[in-house]
Amino acid sequence: MSAEKRIPTGIAGLDRVIEGGVRDNTTFLVVGSSGTGKSTFAMQYLNYGLEHGENGLYISMEEPPEQIMREAKMLGFNLDKYYEKELFFFHSKGKDFVKLVDEQLPALVEANRNYSVKTRVIIDPLTPLIWAIQDKQEQREIITKLFYTLKQLGPVLITTEEHSSPGETVGEDVLIPIYMSDGAVHLTYRPIGGAFNRALEIIKMRATRHGEEVYPYIFVRGVGVVVRTTPLVSAEDMRKYDDVFDKAIRTAADLGAGERMLERLVYVKENWSYPFSPKETLQIFFESQGLNDAVTREDLARRKEKEASSPEVPLDIGDLSGGTLQIEDTKFMQDETLFSDSDDGGVIEIDSLSELEELIQ
After folding, report:
1. Which of the given ranges, 21-25, 163-167, 347-351, has the highest pLDDT on average?
2. Cis, bond preceding 106 (omega within 30 deg of 0)
3. Three-state SS for 320?
4. GO MF annotations for this entry (predicted)?
5. CA–CA separation, 226 vs 100, rounded Å?
6. Percent of the chain, pLDDT > 90?
7. CA distance 133 to 127
8. 242 DSSP 8-state letter
9. How many helices (H) and strands (E) does the chain have?
10. Strands 119-124, 198-205: parallel, antiparallel or unpaired by DSSP?
11. Which of 85, 186, 248, 294 could anchor a disulfide with 347, C-beta 3.0 to 4.6 Å?
């Protein structure tokens, strides 16, 4: 699990499924069609930062500042008291935005370089810039420069409107911003029924263990967006499969896995975040590493001979990070039924992780 400090988005419920918030100096994209609430997400994100001692920079390519603050007040966010003190606006349109990216924003970054207060940045929406630049290469270059520049101020939230064709999961016009962003969520209308007819999905969230479900959300005046989620995995649930992982690590060591693979298994154990058993995943991983396709009679004999000449040493998982690998002595079973006299060359076929465990006990 990532130990990097997280910055809460202030969007109720969302932080529960993205490890507590976004990483600093990253871009967070909110994608959705008209009416899904992208601007509400942006205002709520901005308001949270202002209420917790941050500055705010709101870049709008459609609405003037007065209209933005008026709409925010209708949702219960009073931005007036921060205006031109902690909250600043850039209002630019279409091609004029290129000048903003090339000249004004770099100058702002330079002016704030030694300023200790974090600035939370909003671009709402990015859509006019996408439409104004038809050439995909030019579009990608300016978006790359924009994201790079703004991330130096602090965490950035960008909204963009999609216009997807039938059968498209995500509209083609937003693919470049999604690719260039550090994190992205997709807002959609869904026939869930009742009040929950809008839903959020996390498309990507770099270096973050995030939820993978579809999360309904509603709008509550005075609060804003409320995303209906449950904690991804509780602290207790994260540890309930430790025994499974420990057995897998011992099995891998006994089958001759290298130190690097054992380190990877320990890392998977520490970061397993699903509510179901990892047995199937571990079995597939073992197969991909060639550890349970087949074990020959000669392999077992060589390992047994090597073990007989070595002192019994337990596997200490805690020592893996220090670069010292200690492998538990294993007495392989002598049952003749394990070996085949057929034409397969004395190969023992292993179909599951449990069979591996039984084999080496």
Report:
1. 21-25
2. no
3. helix
4. ATP binding
5. 33
6. 37
7. 10
8. H
9. 13, 13
10. unpaired
11. 294
Question: Which among 180, 183, 161 has a CA at the least distance from the CA of 28?
Answer: 183
Distance of alpha carbon 82 from alpha carbon 88, whole angstroms: 9
**Structure-block tokens of residue 299:** 């392999």
What is Dmax (Cα atoms) for the chain? 85
- 101-145 pLDDT tens trace: 888 889 889 888 888 888 999 999 998 888 888 899 999 999 999
DSSP 276: S
pLDDT attached to residue 321: 40
Q: In this predicted model, what pLDDT tens digit does every residue of 304-315 receive, in sequence order?
A: 566 566 655 444
Q: Are 70 and 37 in contact (CB under 8 A)?
A: no
How is 230-267 classified by DSSP, letter by letter?
A: --SS-HHHHTTTHHHHHHHHHHHHHTT--HHHHHHHHH
Residue 209: is it exposed, middle or buried by C-beta count within 10 angstroms (0-12/13-18/19+)?
A: middle
251, 356 Cβ separation under 8 angstroms: yes
Taking CA 257 as the corner, what is the angle to CA 254 and CA 261, rounded to the nearest 5 degrees? 130
Cα 105 to Cα 306: distance, rounded to the nearest angstrom: 66
Instruction: Please report the beta strands in the chain, taking only residues with DSSP state E, as ranges in sequence order.
Output: 6-7, 22-23, 27-32, 55-60, 87-91, 119-124, 156-161, 183-189, 198-205, 215-220, 224-227, 294-296, 347-349
108: which 2 tokens? Answer: 């702002």
Per the structure block, which two tokens stand in for 112?
């704030």
Residues 6+ apart with CB under 8 A from 123: 59, 61, 146, 150, 156, 157, 158, 159
Domains in the chain, CATH or no CATH each: 6-231 (3.40.50.300), 236-360 (no CATH)
Backbone angles phi, psi at 20, to 5 degrees: 95, -5
Note if the pTM is more than 0.85: no
- Would you give the distance in Å from CA 252 to the centre of its chain? 28
Contacts (Cβ under 8 Å, ≥6 apart) of 196: 216, 217, 218, 228
Q: Are 200 and 186 in contact (CB under 8 A)?
A: yes
pLDDT winner (highest mean) among 25-29, 248-252, 278-282, 336-340 = 25-29
